[in-house]
Amino acid sequence: MKIITLIDNVVYDKYLTGEHGFSLLIEDGKEKILFDTGQSGNFICNAKILGIDISQVNSVVISHGHYDHTGGLLEFIKFNKKAKIYIKREAFYKKCKDKEFIGISLNKSIIEEKIIYTGKEISLSENITIIPDIKIYNEIDTHFESMFINDNNNYIQDKFEDEQFLLINNKKGLTIISGCSHRGISNIIKTATSKFNLPIDYVIGGFHLKNEKKQKVRNIINLLKDFKIKNIGVSHCTGIEYLQLIKDLTTANVFYNYTGNVINLGSDKII
Questions:
Q1: What secondary structure, in 3-state letters, does the chain show?
Q2: What is the pLDDT of residue 267?
Q3: pTM, entire model
């Protein structure tokens, strides 16, 4: 099984494009699952350079309804006519940072026939499940500040009821893939481990630590220590400035999961 980062804030390869956004492709046998679509169609250009045929994607999973995770949807459906889009209804709320709209900009009617609304767990393959409900165990590890839903010009704090994550269970260990972890990466991990009492092989994605106060970040990293995670691949909104701190405060193999990175699950090989 492979996890390929199609776009992230960080890029090293001169032929690939980075942006403030996130998109991964998970290949599990015949199943090809796209997790988020970045903020534009740039992930499709990167996929082509990486030898990936976007038209063969079977499923799209949207982590939450922000532009930097959904902005490439319109371009995606131009190249792929078959994939179903797994998303929570709440993702289509008018999401704002303060009063600036940062939600899904495309008209929902364009993709309506492709949508499968997730209200319960859905298995996409023998190994991969969408987990749509994230219980908040640790209030300190939430990232709702300045995030609102515009309900007829009433601005209500967004608690990200739309957030969901992917759980990969290969029977030997768990791999957790998150988009931004607004409801907290420790809460996401605890939700996963409450379902399966297995060691955690990988945690991959954005942890929304960027711009958080350093003491709060330390407290969240200390929560992660208890899970004895083998590998942590940070991306996107984690903030590259906290990479070293996560390395210092955990026993995990910590790496930045940049644009074009390939993880081969089961082989302990990161390209």
A1: CEEEEEECCCECCCCCCCCCCCEEEEEECCEEEEECCCCCCHHHHHHHHCCCCHHHCCEEECCCCCHHHHCCHHHHHHHCCCCEEEECHHHHCCEEECCEECCCCCCHHHCHHHEEECCCCEECCCCEEEECCCCCCCCCCCCCCCEEEEECCEEEECCCCCCCEEEEECCCCEEEEECCCCCCHHHHHHHHHCCCCCCEEEEEECCCCCCCCHHHHHHHHHHHHCCCCCEEEECHHHCHHHHHHHHHHCCCEEEECCECCEEECCCCEEC
A2: 56
A3: 0.96
